[in-house]
Amino acid sequence: TSGWLSRWKEHHWIGFKKAHREKDDADTLAAKTWTANIFSDILKEFHPRDIYNADETGIYFRALPDGTLAERAEKKARDRITALVANNMDGSDKQPLLIIGKSLNLRCFRGIAHKPLPYKANKNAWMTGELFRVWLKELNCEMRVQRRNVVMIVDICSAHPQDNTDKLSNVRLMFLPLNATSFIQPCDMGIIRNLKAFNRRK
Q1: Where are the domains positioned within the chain?
Q2: What is the spatial distance between Cα 36 and Cα 40, in angstroms, rounded to a whole number?
Q3: CA–CA–CA angle 44, 162, 35 (5° rounding)
Q4: Which residues belong to any copy of the DDE-1 domain (predicted)?
Q5: Could you tell me the CA-to-CA distances from 61 to 53, 102, 202 in Å, in that order?
Q6: What pLDDT, on the 0 to 100 scale, is given for residue 63?
Q7: Local mean pLDDT, 10-residue blocks, the chain (202 residues)
Q8: What is the DSSP letter of 46?
Q9: Positive or negative torsion for Cα 130, 135, 136, 140
Q10: Amino acid 78: pLDDT
């Protein structure tokens, strides 16, 4: 019965945990202004296949779901990697995930000549400005070989430096407004969520 279950949860200090919602703190006016003005100009200049979006997400591969029954005193496992997700607007080009971990020479990589995905490392397993620059240069070389000029839309953060972007010949970097990415970041509209759902299922 529900009474027995309630007492059992209280006895074992079990509570329901829920994740924080980013949209509660978002700037809706900035999002609408950017969409109406800047993004409309991008659509006039670029074909949907040449409009890209990239975003990083943390993957806590040992963590329980955000909403679950667990001991109230139990802390969430913080073992994480970072994945950079990038694809174009019409979905015809999904770039390989860039995985960032803490250690460059992981035990699971021993004896493997070629990793299935690009892998980088730093002490915090976070994206850094230098790693992003290297990734952007590699993407620029790929687009130059394909003779394509594309625009890459990213959010403003310290890991996405705004300098040296003029040296890219085939990739133009565009930035989303501050505190509005939860509304207009394309990768946040279900792409990253599906990625994590399929990863958790496996």
Answers
A1: 2-201
A2: 6
A3: 35
A4: 79-201
A5: 24, 13, 11
A6: 76
A7: 83 73 65 87 94 93 72 72 94 93 86 87 91 94 95 90 80 87 83 89 84
A8: S
A9: positive
A10: 73
Beta-strand ranges (E) seen in the chain are 14-16, 51-59, 69-71, 81-88, 98-101, 119-121, 150-154, 171-175
Q: Across the strands, what pairs with 87?
A: 53, 94
Q: Which is it for the CA torsion 139, 140, 142, 147, positive or negative? A: positive
What's the full length of the chain, in residues?
Answer: 202
Closest CA to 12 of 20, 1, 24, 4: 4
pLDDT for the residue numbered 164: 66
For residue 135, what pLDDT is reported? 94
Q: Which two tokens stand for residue 168?
A: 């890219």
Q: Which CATH class is domain 2-201?
A: alpha beta
* Joined tokens for residue 45: 């200049």
- pLDDT for position 101: 92
Report which of 58, 77, 62 is spatially closest to residue 125, judged by C-alpha positions: 58
